[in-house]
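Hey, resending since the last one bounced:
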Amino acid sequence: MIRNLAAGLSALGLILTGFAWHGVAPVQAKSRPVKLGLYHNGWDTYYRSPFGAAPTDSRVTLRLRSATVVTKATLYLQTESGSTTKLPMRVFKRGKSAIVWTVTTRLPSKATQLSYFFRAQAGSTVRWYGDNSGVGEGGPGQTYGNANDVVTYSLTVYLKSFHTPAWMRNAVVYQIFPDRFFNGNTKNDPKNGTRYGYITVRFHKHWSDLPDQPSCGCDFFGGDLQGIIDKLGYLHKLGVNVIYLNPIFLAPSNHKYDTSNFKAIDPEFGTLKTFKALVGAAKKLGIHLILDGVFEDTGSDSVYFDKYSRFPHSLGAYESKKSPYYPWYTFYQWPDNYADWSGVDSLPLLKESNAVKDFIFRKKSSVAQYWPAQGASGWRLDSANSLSNGYWEQFRSAVKAAYPQSVMIGEYWQDALPWLMGNMWDGVVNYQFREPVLDFFANGQGAQTPTPYGATTFLESEMGLIAEYPRPAIVSSMNIVDSHDVARILTDLNGSKAALRLVALFQMTWLGAPTVYYGDETGVMGASDPDDRRTFPWSHQDKALERYYAKIIHIRLGHGALTTGSVTPLLSADGKRSLAFLRQSGSQRIVVALNDSHRSQTLSIPVSQIKNGTKLTELLNGGSHTVSKGRLQVKLGALSGAVLEAAGR
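The structure tokens again:
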């Protein structure tokens, strides 16, 4: 979805002219070029309604502005297969200097991704208008002289039956790596020197130790489920209402992605009774629990594979071809040559057989249905792109039938649209949200493909993403800035807590479920795995940073415009490294302004959506601003932001 080209919003929507157009005789040297004045903005509901993706069988209205010399306008609507429908546009509004053309069309009954562009004619002059070749999709575009050169606008059509859990719309997610959060029960601490198949336990006596380098998955600190129960009050005060837990099922490693038994809590974390106590205590505080579903493989040291013969009451696939689990795996040459995850032989891959599907999700007793029955609110689906679309369609159908409010969030690091059309995942672990954040606030440090961005390209990128994904998926996607798989955000920001505050402010005021990796809110640093999995610094937190996080989280939770409201770009000033956008829900309007430069800036923000004389209250820092001549004048300190709520709700 995200293109690797840059073009500024300041350059978008300008009238482009030329002298030798494809299919048209060259204009004579002394002739004046015909200016058609074309303009369309896919992020503005005046020009495209509704905004972004639209459900099947719905109607979409598209408009094109032109100079009055234009006598004919046509919409070109293309399918994924390449077929094109030409729809004539009628005059919607005619002024002294411009015409607005319009057309409304019904979208297909099948989920798909359409594309479109426009053709305009003035006498013998023909021009085309499409998206620009910038980073983000869907905003103001540009005029083209050749139809073959046009960059088309995208129009996602998702299933009208697509609904995601209502509780995710207001979610503030907190990710916990259980071994490193808090040790609430020292009696279940891993015993130093214990051998688990391919792992020998090394238990840290000191909570403040750093994780072992290089990573072996074998060093433990004693964090557990009781520790999370003990700290629920802290999380509730912070404003967290959803906890995502890295795997908690029986497994030899500290990260537990090498599952030994999908239906057993690892005793180093607690018991089923402890889990139910966590569910109950969290529920009283309005907190949901999302579990990590690692369904593409098992551990080689498991009841299903049992490579090390540690499970006497189970006959593993590695031990015998007569094992009931033998058909679950692909053996090239039994027992040592088998399909595994990314060349890691401790993670043998599961087939997508009927027996595996019955065990994982189809039956009432299956893993994916068993844990919601115990109180889990849904799944984060590990390496979800490694399983087929058919698998996820069946998974969704089975689990949603039993638990319709259970969430399904796939892990995928690139454009996840194919899985978000309404028949597979509810949302995605949103690394595509994280990429522009790092490219702008961290100048590309830590990004998958580092590309330092200015304010314009950053805003285009984030707008393009929410224009492409279906709205139900956007609000159910975890907007991360880091995780257990990448460096800590504070490390990517070179330790600047001022920059971290600004990143967090953007995260809490943008559309989607903001997700905090445990300890970020208190200043934890760390390079990539395993350094990103440091213990929570309970004895030496940055209390001021924690209070800041709590404040902006509660500002978000207290304003519907910041959770489910629309997003409208207002300003991007590359030279000032500053930007502003509007969040709106009904009559509630909030302007968010950010200054990522190292000097104070005064921003003149155009706010045509808000009447002159309207007072806006600064929710974060106090004070107020008044709209004058269609603008807000807002002074921001270095690396700071403002959240301004308009009066007259």
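The chain has three domains: 9-158, 166-296+350-557, 565-646.

Sorry for the duplicate.
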